[in-house]
Amino acid sequence: MSERDKAGGAFATVTTLFFAWGFVTSVIDPLVASVRAVFHLNYTEAMLTQFAWFIAYGVASLPAASILSRLGYSASILTALGAMVVGCLLVPAATSLELYPGVLAALFVIASGVTLLQVAANPLSAALGKPERSHFRLTLSQAFNSLGTVLGPRLGAGVMLAGGVFATNGVNHASRAQSLRAIDVAFLIIGAFFFAVGVLIWRTRKTIEAAAPPKSAIAGAPWAAIGSGWALYGALAIFLYVGSEVSVGSMLTNFLHDNIAGIDMKAAGEMVSFYWGGAMVGRFLGSALLTRAPAGLLLSIAALGAALLCFAVTQLGGAAGAYVALAIGFFNAIMFPVIFTLTLERSTAPASATSGLLCMAIVGGAALPVIAGKIGDIAGTLTPAFFVPMTGYLGVAAFAICAARVGATSQRGAGAAIEH
Asked: Distance (Å, rounded) from C-alpha 284 to C-alpha 117?
């Protein structure tokens, strides 16, 4: 088998990982609505599900980069999938005791595995082929990540928001127990899926290692990225983007239910798939556009478009605002992969260290949704909470404009310019 064929086969296998973590991450959106009803939570308390999930990126990303440098790609990926399966099995243990903090702890374990998965898979996807097509490959992998995010809310809402407390006017012991069991079923299905993906990776691990960069190229202390100005700037952009995307996704189920007449919670949760579906369509389109247009320019347009739609939601409200909110997903499309690759091109730190720092910045998904939830509780409606993601998208636009001005061809000079 030629080196090109090995790289192509490894890329296809690695892309299944993007689907896997997109699927489970988007299931958290209907879970927010489910736990809010089952455990009698306000918006801020319900958003702690996202906090527990995304805080793992802040805690586990830099250690994950060290694990990657020690174990290599295949072993790190298998370790990550094992942790994710364990976390899924912890969910039924927590719900059987009716402990919301236990659910949060289980989510943290799953997300820690996802963190290691991302630290390994993002740079691996970018490296499996010609360097000049790294934007294209990572964006294409992210398109399949979006396919997972489209299917995740449909499974999650269909299982967790049907029957139980959502089929009665009040919460009683029987309805609460039924909704808790529905949460169990959803995560047991997800755990079985992760196990199957692990089997696939185990069977193809030699192909992945043969096509991957040598282990020596991974070496480098994760803290080395702190010394690169571009790595820090890229991390801030990732923090704002993920926080904004997650804030919108987390609010949508309740926002759609409150603003579209006659729609029940299950249907509202299923509609969230259109938000993620817009990102999927945009990523397939974006992967083609990135072969023809500068990445920084496209990122600028996408971030400004998302900010404009968030502002429109705050002014419209009602059904019109609800449908505009769904459209924000399209503009999310290329943001993560382009921020990631623009940063890797300009960072003066080793790729594994930069990847670890960028994945740690995904902790923005823990911070911004809680702020948005607090605004929703104070205002009594989620409409003004869309100012939070609007601000985040404007920050991403600033990063994109700066990166476009510097240019991808002067990578080391760009890093030095910002660092000094």
From this structure: 22
In the block, which residue shows the tokens 């299923």? Answer: 270
Structure tokens at 309: 């739609």
Cβ contact 248:328 at 8 Å: yes
**154 and 186 Cβ atoms separated by less than 8 Å:** no
> Which amino acid does the sequence have at 62?
L
Tokens of 123: 């740079």
Write out the two tokens for 242: 């993920």
| Confidence bin at 70 (pLDDT 50/70/90) | confident
Q: Residue 409: CA atoms inside 13 Å, Cβ hemisphere, count? A: 1
- Residue 160 tokens, joined: 């967790």
Residue length of the chain: 420
Phi, psi of 212 (to 5 degrees): -75, 160
- Token representation of residue 330: 């399209």
- Residue 141, number of CB atoms within 10 A of its CB: 27
Q: Tell me the pTM.
A: 0.82
Cβ atoms within 10 Å of 274's Cβ, excluding its own: 17
* Domains, the chain: 3-419 (1.20.1250.20)
Separation between Cα atoms, residue 308 and residue 331, nearest integer Å: 10
Residues 6+ apart with CB under 8 A from 163: 175, 178, 179, 182
pLDDT, one tens digit per residue, over 162-188 is 888 887 666 678 888 899 999 999 999
The predicted pLDDT at position 419 comes to: 34
Per the structure block, which two tokens stand in for 25?
Answer: 């991450």
Res 319 pLDDT > 70: yes
Residue 226 identity: I
